[in-house]
């Protein structure tokens, strides 16, 4: 995007659409636009006022209001003015300045846009394969345009631009309509089945047009020599630059940006250089819509079929009831239609008393099953239990733990010599004793001072003087090689 003065300036010409008294401003602008299309470019106050009060909506409209409204539209640059000096006979009439008014170019385009928006639903968008054919013919004439006159080239270029703009705009609008929420809702209704086939056929014809022309256009554009393209575009730029413009001046750079940008858009729409072109995306989008339409139609048809069958069944049942001669016959008919003549039984995992085919299920003992809801939020009710007295269990567990601790103390006391346990001098020990010693080593090594406490509160430290040597600690279930360490108990710290 290039930020220019044209882009950043406020569009005052559009103020009349939403200002106070917009109904008056818009009506006046519509009068000027309708006369503009009839090649009547200038109007005065009396002519505008006469057309305004001709509609009952402005029956109470006054000339002073019309004068003020025209002045405001002039201030917003919607109208250009010129003093009307016709039929002036006195100096006083000249000083009163009777003006004539004309639409500005901006206002003409704004009214065209507003009018199109008002009729958007009526006009609608379309997919025209003929536009692809026309563009194909235009591209085929690209080479001969280098030798054509500037006027012929300009006409050819405008036709190519116009057809491309229509194709691009129409397909975007049509795809927007088909992918709208309203279209999605309509595709799910029964009324959609009436014109489903017509819509699918319409889209398929457009897809065929894409398949027939897009590939040819792409090859033609690829085959164009850069020198030829540059020659043709330069010729068109020169022609546009020579067109006299009274109200505004257009630079050559602006003309070049427009012409070369439009050619780049056409080239990128049909030619895929390293990616997917716009034509390919349109092809995929159209096929997706066809598949969606077909899917919705199949669902609707299936629903209709099921509904029709069910309705026919109910009609048949109603006719049978009407043929009953008395209430007893009607009861029998009801039992036949709605009763449990052929009930379905649940197959249980419980063992049967007999597998004989001659034994009825009614002769067997009933079995009880519990059905649970198949929902994620279901939770089985937890039964409440009274508070249990666990004091005896706690006392026994404590006594057992104390007895185990005392047994560990006795086993470790045997290994202690002169207030220390030397790993190199250990006899064959039990696995539990080995686990306790390894835990002590781990606790002490994790501390920076290599000190720790035993389970019964004794403080010890590790003697690392001979840690470079290795020793073998033997247990009942295997051997382990460890550094030569000593676990020295600190008796002073205990005291």
Task: Explain the overall architecture.
This protein has 495 residues and is an alpha+beta fold. The chain folds into three domains: 5-117, Winged helix-like DNA-binding domain superfamily/Winged helix DNA-binding domain (Arc Repressor Mutant, subunit A), CATH 1.10.10.10; 124-295; 409-494, no CATH class. Helices cover 57% and strands 8% of the residues. It has 18 helices and nine strands. A four-stranded antiparallel β-sheet has the order 4-9-6-5. It has a three-stranded antiparallel β-sheet with strand order 1-3-2. A hairpin with a 2-residue loop joins strand 7 (470-475) and strand 8 (478-483). Helix 9 crosses helix 12 and helix 12 (226-242) crosses helix 13 (252-270). It starts with a helix and ends with a helix. The mean pLDDT is 81.
